[in-house]
Amino acid sequence: MQSIIPVKLPQNAYEIHIATDGIKDIGQKAKSLNIGQKILVISNPEIFNYYGQIVIESLRQEGFEVDHHLIPAGESYKTLDSISSIYDKALSLRLERNSTMVALGGGVIGDMTGFAAATWLRGINFIQIPTSLLAMVDASVGGKTGVNHPQGKNLIGAFYQPKLVLIDPMVLKTLPEREFRAGMAEVIKYGVIWDKELFEQLESADNLKSMDVLSPELLSYILERSCLAKAEVVGQDEREGGLRAILNYGHTVGHGVESLTNYHTFVHGEAVAIGMAIAGKIALQAQLWTQDELIRQNNLIKKAGLPLDIPSSVNQEDLLNSLQLDKKVKAGKVRFILPTEIGKVIITDDISQDLLKTCF
């Protein structure tokens, strides 16, 4: 399979290349971008062990000077300390303004590499090679970069667009099943907020829990439609002035659940799944959509083997308070993305605390 999806932005347009075994061609693709000679590949040890040498050899064959820097895997390393270690490596390599950082990994590596690239020398080139389903369909596209603060997720960051996103579906073969399921949460999200046809295709599948049970055709369809949905939304609203906020469906409560469980209980997609289930419940209570539509959404979440319920260990008051730290809070009011039907959502801050409490 091979397809190219343009991300149409006024100043920083780029392309998403989806290609089977495309990771072997990163050198040629980088050469066509007219970037400098020095490249720093940033990854985690496990992913680098699988794909690092393939990427480095491909880049070196095209004449690039390549080095690498590894950061331990996991959300707990998505910190300013990790960013500082990237800066130290960039300084030792004397990276210049036309140099490039390549993110080889999942969403955590992509977010950190993007933030480091955005801030080193006030901005150098940046390429995304996502290796998880979640990163392929969501985190690698759109230019959101950043790290966590102890008090909240992604509170420190920048909008910074990559020069290229290269998606190779074959790398999903080494992705743990739990991480694949987590990525399916973001795919389901696109179906609810933007793409009714995608939602219906997911409904027609018998099982969404692992790559092994998906046909290559369905996997291709999922990747293309999800990236297209993200590209269309970002193309209309690069810096989340309005429409782009809909991409945070399920994330408002999801981020709260993640932080209140210290990022140890759930991976990101699992928390988003819980957030979508709660948002669907809020929409039902607010009479925005029907019980049938809520059941359809939750059935898809269950089909992907994802959780629906806030764990009993999370205190209701703590969760309500954590929502006030969400980046979408405006004038002290929490903005929720809520569905009105499959494929359409609204942004509203008109949800009372009392209504919220009935849904938590």
From TrEMBL:
Q: What is this protein called?
A: 3-dehydroquinate synthase
| Catalytic activity line of the entry | 7-phospho-2-dehydro-3-deoxy-D-arabino-heptonate = 3-dehydroquinate + phosphate
Pathway note: Metabolic intermediate biosynthesis; chorismate biosynthesis; chorismate from D-erythrose 4-phosphate and phosphoenolpyruvate: step 2/7
Q: Which cofactor does it need?
A: Co(2+); Zn(2+); NAD(+)
EC nos? 4.2.3.4
Q: How is the cofactor bound?
A: Binds 1 divalent metal cation per subunit. Can use either Co(2+) or Zn(2+).
The residues covered by the 3-dehydroquinate synthase N-terminal domain are 70-181
